[in-house]
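To assess whether the prediction recovers the assembly geometry, we first specified each molecular entity separately, as shown.
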Amino acid sequence: MDDAKAQHVQELRRGTVVLACLVRLATPDYGYALLETLNARGFAVDAGTLYPLLRRLEKQGLLSSAWNTEEARPRKFYTTSALGHQLAAQLTAEWDAIDRSLRALKEGQ
Amino acid sequence: MSTPSTGTLSERYIWAASRGIPEKQRAELEPEFRELIADSIEAQRANGLSERDAEHAALVELGDPARLAARYTDRPLHLIGPRYYLDWLRLLKLLLAIVVPIAAAAAGVARLLAGGQVGDVVAAVATTAIGVGVHLCFWVTLVFVLIERQGANRSRPLLEWTPDMLPQLPSGNRRSLGELVPTLVFLAVFAAWIVWQHFNSFFTDAAGDPIPLLSPALWSSWLPYFLALIVLEMGFALWLYLRGRWTLTLALVNLLLNLAFTVPALWLLLTGQLINPAFEAAVPVDGSNVAAVSGAVYPIIAIALVGFALWDAVDGFVRAWRARE
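The predicted structure of the complete assembly is given in tokenized form:
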């Protein structure tokens, strides 16, 4: 039963990883730091999924990136683009709508 | 290019992952892999692992490099995905059910007409059926694998499903034993008669031994074949009973069985190999010669054989159509 519960929770949260990335990357950050922040906040995602996802979001113009070579190792820093902020706002509105709908379902019955 | 923090395992991992990526994107992605691995190792080291163990643990966590590469390039990790799977399955079933029996029957008939013995014919049918089946499976699957990889922007299946494609409800429950039992009894009696006629006859020769109706020479070739075929027919009758209704596959197998029986029987009859010459000679014909009588009787038997097989085969298809899915 706990396995099933964990799976449902993971499934529910999976769709929110994109929104979490767009919101978090309002300030520039690199992949692994983002991964640790997300995991600490309960967004279960692994490196092998997050890195390709960031790249896809960049290709869609939702993120912009720049290599930072000032540190010991070069790292790719991602930042949410204007388009990304727009999408983040839309997704947040969607999230609020889902929240309202759920409340209405609970109270309406 | 290896820095002190990335040992040979990491380099090998990066190389393995880059292999699965188109040349153009490699230069772009390799630094990303490098960063990803170095940061993963660092995180493992922060957990208190030694340099070597940290690298190992990090790569274990990242998993198969080919899988990572596939995620980057959106390459499917399956041969045929859910979009085309049902199209593939339906097409394959349909082609196997139609092409294999026809090809196998054609191969058998060709070998028969070329004067092949029963063993040759059975071998030709079996090898053709297996060969054609394997080829069909391979080529159809290959085409679908290519479609899966080419048509990445197609989101719809090849054949749009409509409610008209729903199967008919099975009419009634299981077939009654009323059809199975008579079929099995008839086949058993037929098989028993083939054996029986060898030892019992209306006519006896000079030594008082019975003269069999069917050529005794056939016992070393075709009669065992026909007996085996009768056993197959029994199996078919049982299969039909268990299936509960006629299907396209059943109808095609029925056609194949009919061909397997009628074609050799007809050929043996018309080439004069089926009926024992001694039996013909023993038939008391008043005045006229034996050849004239057999010349008149054989075509009638032949027409009856063909007519029965044709009716039985067509009946199978008609019933399959009525109960179609």
